[in-house]
Amino acid sequence: MTKQAASRIPAPAGKALSVLEEAAESSKLWCGAAVLMASVGGWRGRRAAAAGVTALVVAQLVSNGVCKQVTGRRRPPKEWIPHDEVEDRPDSSSFPSGHTAAAVAFTVALAPTWPLAGAVCAVPAAAVAVERVQSGAHYPSDVAAGAVIGLAAAWLTHRAAPYLLRRLPVPR
């Protein structure tokens, strides 16, 4: 990524992406969406929210708890970023993007149960991924790896849930 590539996003769009990223920090955006779905969506909303949050937790554990600890990749050079947001970057490893992993995991995991909610959540999830690159927090490959982790976490959540439920003791 070059300075020229990073500057292609208009300043107002960059500010909007920053606001969205702040909402997604510590998964606040996704947890808020889960609460809303569980509150107004009936059984479908509760099931979608549970799947989304479970996948989000798995993705965060893998991306932030494992991958970032073993990779130690440096963030993109500050000289590449033509705006002041570069000063707000975390000090942790750049690889992979935990924000993207969480966003993709949450969105993909809830989509089979509630496709409309999945489509709605896909918009901010994609925007978070774009924001992580434009802000200088990640290389595009970090975001791609985060997306793969999110997809894997959603797949694992859907595969593991029925397996685990069959093995739980039934109260009598």
Report on the architecture of this protein.
With 172 residues, the protein is mostly helical. Helix 2 packs across helix 6 and helix 3 packs antiparallel against helix 4. The longest helix has 30 residues. The N terminus is likely disordered.
Q: What is this entry, summarized?
A:
The chain has 172 residues and is mainly α. 71% of the residues lie in helices and 0% in strands.
Quick tags:
mainly alpha; disordered N terminus
Which ranges are low-confidence, i.e. pLDDT below 50, for 5 or more consecutive residues? 1-7
Give the number of DSSP strands. Answer: 0
Per DSSP, what share of the residues sits in E-state strands of 2 or more residues?
under 5%
For the CA atoms, what is the radius of gyration? 17 Å
Task: List the topology elements.
Blueprint: H1 3-6, H2 11-24, H3 28-40, H4 42-71, H5 98-110, H6 115-134, H7 140-167
Helix pairs in contact: 2-6, 3-4, 4-5, 4-7, 5-6, 5-7
